[in-house]
Protein backbone atom coordinates (compact mmCIF):
# COMPACT_ATOMS: atom_id res chain seq x y z
CA UNK A 1 0.00 0.00 0.00
CA UNK A 2 1.45 3.35 -1.03
CA UNK A 3 0.27 6.77 0.04
CA UNK A 4 0.37 9.52 -2.59
CA UNK A 5 -0.09 13.04 -1.23
CA UNK A 6 -1.17 15.87 -3.52
CA UNK A 7 1.46 18.60 -3.52
CA UNK A 8 1.11 22.29 -4.42
CA UNK A 9 4.44 23.71 -5.73
CA UNK A 10 3.32 27.30 -5.16
CA UNK A 11 5.45 28.50 -2.26
CA UNK A 12 7.95 30.62 -4.15
CA UNK A 13 7.76 33.89 -6.02
CA UNK A 14 7.35 33.95 -9.81
CA UNK A 15 7.13 36.95 -12.17
CA UNK A 16 3.53 36.17 -13.10
CA UNK A 17 2.35 36.22 -9.47
CA UNK A 18 4.33 39.40 -8.90
CA UNK A 19 2.35 41.00 -11.73
CA UNK A 20 -1.06 39.62 -10.74
CA UNK A 21 -0.96 39.77 -6.94
CA UNK A 22 1.96 42.00 -5.95
CA UNK A 23 5.71 41.77 -5.46
CA UNK A 24 6.98 38.48 -3.95
CA UNK A 25 3.49 37.02 -3.62
CA UNK A 26 3.16 33.41 -2.52
CA UNK A 27 0.36 31.41 -0.91
CA UNK A 28 1.87 32.27 2.48
CA UNK A 29 0.65 35.85 2.22
CA UNK A 30 -2.98 34.70 2.27
CA UNK A 31 -2.32 32.01 4.88
CA UNK A 32 -0.57 34.33 7.35
CA UNK A 33 -3.22 37.06 7.05
CA UNK A 34 -6.22 34.75 7.58
CA UNK A 35 -8.59 35.55 10.44
CA UNK A 36 -11.43 33.68 12.20
CA UNK A 37 -15.00 34.44 11.12
CA UNK A 38 -16.81 33.09 14.18
CA UNK A 39 -16.09 31.90 17.69
CA UNK A 40 -14.03 28.73 17.61
CA UNK A 41 -13.03 29.14 13.97
CA UNK A 42 -9.44 27.89 13.67
CA UNK A 43 -7.55 30.50 11.67
CA UNK A 44 -4.82 31.25 10.87
CA UNK A 45 -3.08 27.91 10.38
CA UNK A 46 0.52 28.56 11.44
CA UNK A 47 3.15 26.15 10.09
CA UNK A 48 4.97 24.16 12.77
CA UNK A 49 8.29 25.67 13.81
CA UNK A 50 10.09 22.70 12.24
CA UNK A 51 9.08 23.92 8.74
CA UNK A 52 8.04 27.58 9.06
CA UNK A 53 6.91 29.68 6.11
CA UNK A 54 9.24 27.90 3.74
CA UNK A 55 10.46 28.77 0.25
CA UNK A 56 10.34 26.02 -2.36
CA UNK A 57 13.37 27.43 -4.12
CA UNK A 58 15.38 26.22 -1.12
CA UNK A 59 16.73 22.84 -2.22
CA UNK A 60 17.91 22.06 1.30
CA UNK A 61 14.40 22.51 2.68
CA UNK A 62 12.85 20.45 -0.11
CA UNK A 63 15.15 17.56 0.81
CA UNK A 64 14.18 17.92 4.49
CA UNK A 65 10.48 18.11 3.61
CA UNK A 66 10.56 14.94 1.54
CA UNK A 67 12.56 13.06 4.15
CA UNK A 68 9.93 14.01 6.75
CA UNK A 69 7.16 12.72 4.50
CA UNK A 70 8.93 9.41 3.97
CA UNK A 71 9.46 8.88 7.70
CA UNK A 72 5.73 9.18 8.26
CA UNK A 73 4.67 6.83 5.48
CA UNK A 74 4.06 9.32 2.66
CA UNK A 75 6.08 7.37 0.14
CA UNK A 76 5.00 9.34 -2.92
CA UNK A 77 3.76 12.72 -4.08
CA UNK A 78 1.53 13.85 -6.93
CA UNK A 79 2.74 17.29 -7.96
CA UNK A 80 0.38 19.69 -9.67
CA UNK A 81 1.77 20.56 -13.07
CA UNK A 82 0.79 23.87 -14.69
CA UNK A 83 1.23 24.00 -18.45
CA UNK A 84 -0.64 26.45 -20.67
CA UNK A 85 0.10 25.83 -24.35
CA UNK A 86 3.71 25.07 -23.51
CA UNK A 87 4.12 27.84 -20.93
CA UNK A 88 4.71 26.36 -17.50
CA UNK A 89 4.24 28.03 -14.11
CA UNK A 90 5.57 27.00 -10.69
CA UNK A 91 7.85 24.38 -12.22
CA UNK A 92 11.10 25.32 -10.47
CA UNK A 93 10.52 23.07 -7.40
CA UNK A 94 9.65 20.11 -9.66
CA UNK A 95 12.94 20.48 -11.46
CA UNK A 96 14.82 20.52 -8.16
CA UNK A 97 12.91 17.48 -6.88
CA UNK A 98 13.37 15.49 -10.08
CA UNK A 99 17.09 16.23 -10.29
CA UNK A 100 17.86 15.53 -6.62
CA UNK A 101 19.75 12.35 -5.76
CA UNK A 102 18.95 12.89 -2.07
CA UNK A 103 15.18 12.39 -2.46
CA UNK A 104 13.77 8.86 -2.63
CA UNK A 105 9.99 9.53 -2.62
CA UNK A 106 8.29 8.29 -5.76
CA UNK A 107 6.14 10.77 -7.67
CA UNK A 108 3.69 11.41 -10.46
CA UNK A 109 2.19 14.53 -12.02
CA UNK A 110 -1.31 15.94 -12.25
CA UNK A 111 -1.92 18.34 -15.12
CA UNK A 112 -3.91 21.23 -13.62
CA UNK A 113 -5.84 21.80 -16.83
CA UNK A 114 -8.10 24.60 -15.63
CA UNK A 115 -7.82 28.27 -16.56
CA UNK A 116 -5.80 30.38 -14.13
CA UNK A 117 -8.20 33.03 -12.85
CA UNK A 118 -8.49 35.52 -10.06
CA UNK A 119 -11.21 33.34 -8.56
CA UNK A 120 -8.40 31.25 -7.03
CA UNK A 121 -8.05 34.01 -4.44
CA UNK A 122 -11.70 34.85 -4.04
CA UNK A 123 -11.77 37.64 -6.58
CA UNK A 124 -13.38 37.90 -10.02
CA UNK A 125 -13.38 35.17 -12.65
CA UNK A 126 -11.03 37.22 -14.82
CA UNK A 127 -8.88 34.75 -16.76
CA UNK A 128 -5.17 35.40 -16.33
CA UNK A 129 -3.99 32.45 -18.45
CA UNK A 130 -6.43 30.38 -20.47
CA UNK A 131 -6.12 26.74 -21.41
CA UNK A 132 -6.28 26.30 -25.17
CA UNK A 133 -7.00 22.79 -26.40
CA UNK A 134 -5.51 21.64 -29.70
CA UNK A 135 -3.37 18.91 -31.27
CA UNK A 136 -0.32 21.16 -31.00
CA UNK A 137 -0.89 21.87 -27.32
CA UNK A 138 -1.36 18.16 -26.59
CA UNK A 139 2.13 17.62 -28.00
CA UNK A 140 3.47 20.52 -25.91
CA UNK A 141 2.04 18.95 -22.74
CA UNK A 142 3.69 15.62 -23.49
CA UNK A 143 7.01 17.25 -24.35
CA UNK A 144 6.85 19.07 -21.03
CA UNK A 145 6.33 15.95 -18.93
CA UNK A 146 8.30 13.24 -20.71
CA UNK A 147 11.51 14.22 -18.94
CA UNK A 148 9.83 13.55 -15.60
CA UNK A 149 8.53 10.19 -16.85
CA UNK A 150 12.14 9.13 -17.44
CA UNK A 151 13.03 9.62 -13.76
CA UNK A 152 13.68 6.33 -11.94
CA UNK A 153 11.34 7.46 -9.15
CA UNK A 154 8.39 8.20 -11.43
CA UNK A 155 5.44 5.90 -10.70
CA UNK A 156 4.66 3.44 -13.46
CA UNK A 157 1.87 0.86 -13.63
CA UNK A 158 2.38 -2.01 -16.04
CA UNK A 159 5.25 -0.08 -17.69
CA UNK A 160 3.01 2.94 -18.12
CA UNK A 161 3.78 6.28 -16.40
CA UNK A 162 0.90 7.35 -14.15
CA UNK A 163 -0.40 10.73 -15.31
CA UNK A 164 -3.41 12.53 -13.81
CA UNK A 165 -5.64 15.17 -15.35
CA UNK A 166 -7.39 17.39 -12.82
CA UNK A 167 -10.66 17.83 -14.69
CA UNK A 168 -10.71 15.92 -17.98
CA UNK A 169 -14.31 16.99 -18.61
CA UNK A 170 -13.07 20.56 -19.19
CA UNK A 171 -11.18 19.43 -22.27
CA UNK A 172 -13.50 18.80 -25.26
CA UNK A 173 -10.59 17.06 -27.00
CA UNK A 174 -9.62 14.86 -24.07
CA UNK A 175 -10.12 11.56 -25.94
CA UNK A 176 -7.97 12.89 -28.79
CA UNK A 177 -5.30 13.98 -26.30
CA UNK A 178 -5.35 10.47 -24.89
CA UNK A 179 -4.84 8.86 -28.31
CA UNK A 180 -1.95 11.18 -29.13
CA UNK A 181 -0.29 10.79 -25.73
CA UNK A 182 -0.50 7.01 -25.96
CA UNK A 183 1.21 7.12 -29.36
CA UNK A 184 3.94 9.46 -28.09
CA UNK A 185 4.48 7.37 -24.95
CA UNK A 186 4.94 4.20 -26.98
CA UNK A 187 7.39 6.05 -29.21
CA UNK A 188 9.40 6.79 -26.04
CA UNK A 189 9.56 3.08 -25.24
CA UNK A 190 6.73 2.84 -22.71
CA UNK A 191 3.75 0.50 -22.95
CA UNK A 192 1.63 3.66 -23.05
CA UNK A 193 0.36 6.03 -20.35
CA UNK A 194 -1.74 5.04 -17.34
CA UNK A 195 -4.17 7.95 -17.37
CA UNK A 196 -6.39 8.85 -14.42
CA UNK A 197 -8.88 11.68 -14.21
CA UNK A 198 -9.60 13.36 -10.90
CA UNK A 199 -13.27 13.45 -10.00
CA UNK A 200 -13.03 17.15 -9.29
CA UNK A 201 -16.09 19.28 -8.53
CA UNK A 202 -18.22 16.18 -8.11
CA UNK A 203 -17.50 15.01 -11.69
CA UNK A 204 -17.98 11.22 -11.89
CA UNK A 205 -17.68 10.69 -15.64
CA UNK A 206 -16.50 7.09 -16.22
CA UNK A 207 -12.83 7.06 -17.26
CA UNK A 208 -13.62 5.06 -20.40
CA UNK A 209 -15.41 8.10 -21.86
CA UNK A 210 -11.96 9.66 -22.36
CA UNK A 211 -10.16 6.37 -22.88
CA UNK A 212 -8.62 6.66 -19.40
CA UNK A 213 -7.59 3.76 -17.17
CA UNK A 214 -8.91 5.01 -13.85
CA UNK A 215 -10.40 7.83 -11.81
CA UNK A 216 -9.04 9.42 -8.65
CA UNK A 217 -11.62 10.37 -6.05
CA UNK A 218 -11.38 14.02 -5.08
CA UNK A 219 -11.54 14.74 -1.37
CA UNK A 220 -13.71 16.36 -0.28
CA UNK A 221 -16.28 14.93 -2.68
CA UNK A 222 -18.60 17.90 -3.08
CA UNK A 223 -21.45 15.68 -4.22
CA UNK A 224 -21.30 14.08 -0.75
CA UNK A 225 -21.35 17.44 1.01
CA UNK A 226 -25.14 17.72 1.21
CA UNK A 227 -25.06 20.97 3.18
CA UNK A 228 -22.94 22.61 0.50
CA UNK A 229 -25.83 22.84 -1.96
CA UNK A 230 -28.13 24.39 0.63
CA UNK A 231 -25.86 27.09 2.00
CA UNK A 232 -26.01 30.75 1.03
CA UNK A 233 -23.11 31.20 -1.36
CA UNK A 234 -22.56 34.81 -0.24
CA UNK A 235 -21.33 33.94 3.25
CA UNK A 236 -19.13 31.44 5.04
CA UNK A 237 -20.51 27.96 4.36
CA UNK A 238 -20.03 25.37 7.09
CA UNK A 239 -20.09 21.65 6.33
CA UNK A 240 -19.83 18.83 8.85
CA UNK A 241 -16.61 16.91 8.22
CA UNK A 242 -17.88 13.70 9.82
CA UNK A 243 -20.98 13.59 7.63
CA UNK A 244 -19.01 14.03 4.41
CA UNK A 245 -16.49 11.35 5.38
CA UNK A 246 -19.30 8.90 6.08
CA UNK A 247 -21.10 9.82 2.84
CA UNK A 248 -17.91 9.26 0.86
CA UNK A 249 -17.50 5.80 2.38
CA UNK A 250 -21.09 4.92 1.48
CA UNK A 251 -20.70 5.67 -2.22
CA UNK A 252 -21.51 2.69 -4.44
CA UNK A 253 -18.52 0.82 -5.80
CA UNK A 254 -18.15 2.03 -9.40
CA UNK A 255 -17.84 -0.31 -12.40
CA UNK A 256 -14.38 1.15 -13.10
CA UNK A 257 -11.11 1.59 -11.21
CA UNK A 258 -11.32 4.40 -8.70
CA UNK A 259 -8.37 5.29 -6.46
CA UNK A 260 -9.65 6.41 -3.07
CA UNK A 261 -8.70 9.77 -1.60
CA UNK A 262 -9.07 11.24 1.89
CA UNK A 263 -8.55 14.69 3.38
CA UNK A 264 -7.60 15.86 6.90
CA UNK A 265 -9.72 19.02 6.75
CA UNK A 266 -10.80 21.93 4.57
CA UNK A 267 -11.08 25.68 5.10
CA UNK A 268 -10.41 27.99 2.16
CA UNK A 269 -11.09 31.23 4.05
CA UNK A 270 -7.45 32.37 3.53
CA UNK A 271 -8.33 32.57 -0.15
CA UNK A 272 -12.05 33.29 -0.25
CA UNK A 273 -12.46 35.32 2.95
CA UNK A 274 -16.14 35.76 3.89
CA UNK A 275 -17.34 33.62 0.95
CA UNK A 276 -15.33 30.62 2.13
CA UNK A 277 -16.32 26.99 2.46
CA UNK A 278 -15.06 25.19 5.54
CA UNK A 279 -15.55 21.93 7.36
CA UNK A 280 -16.39 21.84 11.04
CA UNK A 281 -15.69 19.14 13.61
CA UNK A 282 -12.52 17.98 11.87
CA UNK A 283 -10.56 15.67 14.13
CA UNK A 284 -7.64 13.23 13.96
CA UNK A 285 -10.01 10.43 14.93
CA UNK A 286 -12.29 10.94 11.93
CA UNK A 287 -9.32 11.36 9.62
CA UNK A 288 -7.95 8.04 10.90
CA UNK A 289 -11.31 6.39 10.25
CA UNK A 290 -11.34 7.80 6.70
CA UNK A 291 -7.81 6.63 5.92
CA UNK A 292 -8.41 3.15 7.34
CA UNK A 293 -11.58 2.84 5.25
CA UNK A 294 -9.76 3.93 2.07
CA UNK A 295 -6.92 1.47 2.70
CA UNK A 296 -9.36 -1.39 3.38
CA UNK A 297 -11.36 -0.53 0.25
CA UNK A 298 -8.20 -0.59 -1.83
CA UNK A 299 -7.08 -3.95 -0.50
CA UNK A 300 -10.49 -5.44 -1.10
CA UNK A 301 -11.44 -4.00 -4.47
CA UNK A 302 -8.23 -3.21 -6.38
CA UNK A 303 -5.47 -5.55 -7.59
CA UNK A 304 -2.15 -5.35 -5.77
CA UNK A 305 -0.42 -3.34 -8.51
CA UNK A 306 -3.03 -0.62 -7.95
CA UNK A 307 -2.66 -0.35 -4.18
CA UNK A 308 -2.43 3.43 -4.03
CA UNK A 309 -4.39 5.75 -1.74
CA UNK A 310 -4.32 9.50 -2.33
CA UNK A 311 -4.43 12.19 0.35
CA UNK A 312 -5.52 15.73 -0.40
CA UNK A 313 -3.20 17.30 0.45
CA UNK A 314 0.35 17.60 1.66
CA UNK A 315 0.46 21.39 1.68
CA UNK A 316 -2.75 23.11 0.59
CA UNK A 317 -2.42 25.66 3.40
CA UNK A 318 -4.68 28.16 1.64
CA UNK A 319 -7.47 25.57 1.79
CA UNK A 320 -6.76 24.44 5.36
CA UNK A 321 -6.01 21.04 3.89
CA UNK A 322 -2.52 19.89 4.85
CA UNK A 323 -0.67 16.91 6.27
CA UNK A 324 2.26 19.16 7.02
CA UNK A 325 2.35 19.96 10.74
CA UNK A 326 1.01 23.18 12.20
CA UNK A 327 1.45 24.80 15.58
CA UNK A 328 -1.96 23.74 16.86
CA UNK A 329 -2.15 20.03 15.97
CA UNK A 330 1.50 19.29 15.36
CA UNK A 331 2.22 15.95 13.70
CA UNK A 332 -1.10 14.29 14.54
CA UNK A 333 -2.15 13.66 10.90
CA UNK A 334 1.28 12.37 9.94
CA UNK A 335 1.38 10.08 12.96
CA UNK A 336 -1.93 8.59 11.79
CA UNK A 337 -0.51 7.94 8.32
CA UNK A 338 2.52 6.26 9.84
CA UNK A 339 0.37 4.17 12.20
CA UNK A 340 -1.82 2.86 9.37
CA UNK A 341 0.60 2.68 6.46
CA UNK A 342 4.05 2.44 8.00
CA UNK A 343 6.98 4.74 7.54
CA UNK A 344 10.10 3.58 9.31
CA UNK A 345 10.94 3.67 12.96
CA UNK A 346 12.13 7.24 13.38
CA UNK A 347 11.02 8.90 16.60
CA UNK A 348 8.06 11.28 16.40
CA UNK A 349 8.99 14.92 15.81
CA UNK A 350 5.91 16.21 17.64
Please, could you describe this protein's structure?
- This protein has helices at residues 15-21, 27-32, 59-71, 92-99, 135-149, 174-187, 226-230, 241-249, 269-272, 284-301, 332-341, and strands spanning 2-7, 76-84, 87-89, 106-111, 116-117, 127-129, 156-157, 160-165, 194-199, 214-217, 237-240, 258-259, 261-262, 277-280, 308-311.
- The chain is of the alpha/beta class and 350 residues long.
- The strands form three sheets. Strands 1, 2, 3, 4, 7, 8, 9, 10, 12, 13 and 15 form an eleven-stranded mixed sheet that branches.
- A hairpin with a 2-residue loop joins strand 7 and strand 8.
- The longest helix has 18 residues, at 284-301.
- The radius of gyration is 19 Å and the shape is globular.
Compact description:
31% of the residues lie in helices and 18% in strands. By secondary structure, it is an alpha/beta fold. The chain has a single domain (2-341), classed as TIM Barrel (Alpha-Beta Barrel).
